[in-house]
Amino acid sequence: MNKDLLHENVLQAIKERMPNKMNLANRLVDLLCIEKEAVYRRLRGEVAFTFSEIALISNEFGISLDNIISSSLSLKSKPFQLKAIDYLQPEEMDYAMMEQYLGIMKAGRMDPRSEIVDCTNTLPLYFYHGHKYLERLQLFKSLYQSGRTNTVKSFEEIHLTKRLEQYQKEDVIEIKYIKNAYYIFDPFIFQYLVNDVIYFRSINLISEEDMENMKNDLLHLLSEMEQLAISGFDKDTGNRIYMYVASINFDVSCWYIDINNYHISMLKAFVLNNFTSLDEDSFLILKKRIEALLRSSTMISVSGERQRIAFFEKQREIVNTLNVLSA
User: Fold this and answer.
1) pTM to 2 decimals?
2) What are the φ and ψ backbone dihedral angles of 223, each rounded to 5 degrees?
3) Are residues 322 and 213 in the same domain?
4) What are the beta bridge partners of residue 256?
5) Helices 51-61 and 65-72: crossing angle, nearest 10°?
6) What is the rounded CA–CA span in Å between residue 220 and residue 206?
7) pLDDT, averaged across the chain
8) Is 33 left (phi over 0), alpha (psi -120 to 50) or beta?
9) Residue 120 has pLDDT above 80, yes or no
10) Residue finishing a domain among 42, 77, 112
11) How far apart are alpha carbons 249 and 263 in whole angstroms?
12) For the residues 139-164, what does the mean pLDDT come to?
């Protein structure tokens, strides 16, 4: 195993979880019980971490040693890492991971070729942000996919923290500055969402009033999306938005970001989290597959008027089935 590469992978992993260098140094001083200068020598790569230090760091920061060692061995299989942020009860480490991602997104403002391509069967934050019932629904779904169901919570008990609200607001702002954004929707994207609402209503975790509010949010969202599809531009930045409907359902949602030197590929998991890879080969493989899907999809933005009208009429019919339940 290449020891230098192992050390680099450890450094990269802990910096992802705590990007502020001063705070990281202080934390490592306390954790490793060594002088601050010794910590800085390790952070500069002048001295390698010992195996016992790596074990302590792995335990403290929740780093997978398997992933680090596999990356160091340069295996043919390119690993994806689950970025498991706790959005329900976020701690400093969770916010640090959010800030790191936000820092990458901010670089898009300076890149005239920046691009985001999202192939999705769930609503992206860019669209549902500002619709509070839909924001809470995503958080609510994540609760029931996280294994934290020992204590049953109803929809009205779920709320975003102020700090998470601010992060999502900033995230959407930075997405708006991406020069070109492509969204490929599963043809049943709203049906899946309505099915979720119906299920939680059937077990009395969503009230009729909240279901009605969610229906109104969805109808407002559809009107906004339709106007965005007609114009093909973000109204705040003027950057291009391309919207497609896939001809077939896809098994997993995936997306990638191409900003400056950042090539990030992601597979969506558990509502709000992603399996993420910074590996260049993984990025190129995912990009090629999404481009293939794009070629077999139907554009509904700007020029695809007939297809656009049919798509949004169908989605409104789906959303309005929530009336039948509450009648």
Assistant:
1) 0.75
2) -65, -40
3) yes
4) 117, 265
5) 130
6) 20
7) 85
8) left
9) yes
10) 77
11) 26
12) 82
